[in-house]
Amino acid sequence: xxxxxxxxxxxxxxxxxxxxxYEAREIPCRVKLDANESPYGFKLKAPDVETNRYPDPEALKxxxxxxxxxxxxxxxxxxxxxxxxxxxxxVTTFGGPVLFPTPTFVMxxxxxxxxxxxxxxxxxxxxxxxxxKAMLKAIREEKPKIVFLATPNNPTGNCFDTQSILKIVEATxxxxxxxxxxxxxxxxxxxxPLLPDYDNMVIMRTLSKIGLAALRVGYMAGNQELISEVxxxxxxxxLNSYSQAYAVEAMKDSKGMRGYIxxxxxxRDRLMAGMQDLEGVEPFPSEANFxxxxxxxxxxxxxxxxxxxxxxxxxxxxxxxxxxxxTVGAIKENNAFLKALGETLAG
Length: 347
Ligand code: PMP
Prior knowledge:
By secondary structure, the chain is of the alpha/beta class. The protein is built from twelve helices and 13 strands. The longest helix is centred in the C-terminal third of the chain and has 23 residues, at 254-276. The radius of gyration is 21 Å and the shape is globular. Residues 36, 82-84, 105, 150, 154, 179, 181, 206, 208, 218 line the site of 4'-deoxy-4'-aminopyridoxal-5'-phosphate (PMP).
């Protein structure tokens, strides 16, 4: 009705009302090391796409390539518009409570809350390892429908021990999502080979960290029945034709992809050594494409000092007091970061 003032917030579901939008705005900078992207993209020919047609709703070619890569069957694989979308689908399918160690990837909690499910965090121990005893206790008492475990974990960078993960998989009556977004950079091989032994385990991966973030391709593998249940809530054309086609082409260049991953892992070790040489910061060991570090001067001043010098990283002070997270970039970017960090710390 014209002139009537509508209070939109009152119409919004309480679970959504209490959320804040995920902060994903562009901050101008010279060196972008805040989002765990790869510094190396793929230069591919534009795919031949019939723009008037909907995408392949089953993303068959892409799923075939991903299934081959994970040594599993086509019907064991589901693709999402990024693994973010798969998290949405999983929580929509199974509901809560949703359990995860903290700190970890924030979207597990955000999505559970948005969907009106209970999100429960169990703190990691002082080495950022799983507190298996506390996790098992929470599983016994709260009976979560879903447990999320990111290994390597974001933002801490460490891998969880396989035996501890399996204890959790065995103890829960719900499903366990092992989120291996950063596994390509880790020394541990990943848990996909164990999938046939555990019906309630799902492995989730993404192409975002290995040079294809623009495409938004996440995927998961698990037992056929579980995958077909989650597939019921998937939007019919969730992955556009360009992403499907580009991803298939990029995956053909597995040698190039492996080369980039190796370069990033060795740059990570050089970056780590460079940071260890600086007074006032303590970097933590990493198996991912980023490094978490603590700044004696506090996270805010270091974040601002770097940004003033054109280098954007992530301030994770709200999750881990005094800490920041820097993505491993190309040689030049890492050098620019080390130089800016040195200057910032020198005051
Ligand atoms: N899992 C983890 C642990 C992540 O850190 C991220 C990205 N930051 C994602 C999943 C989401 O990846 P994407 O949606 O780009 O596939």
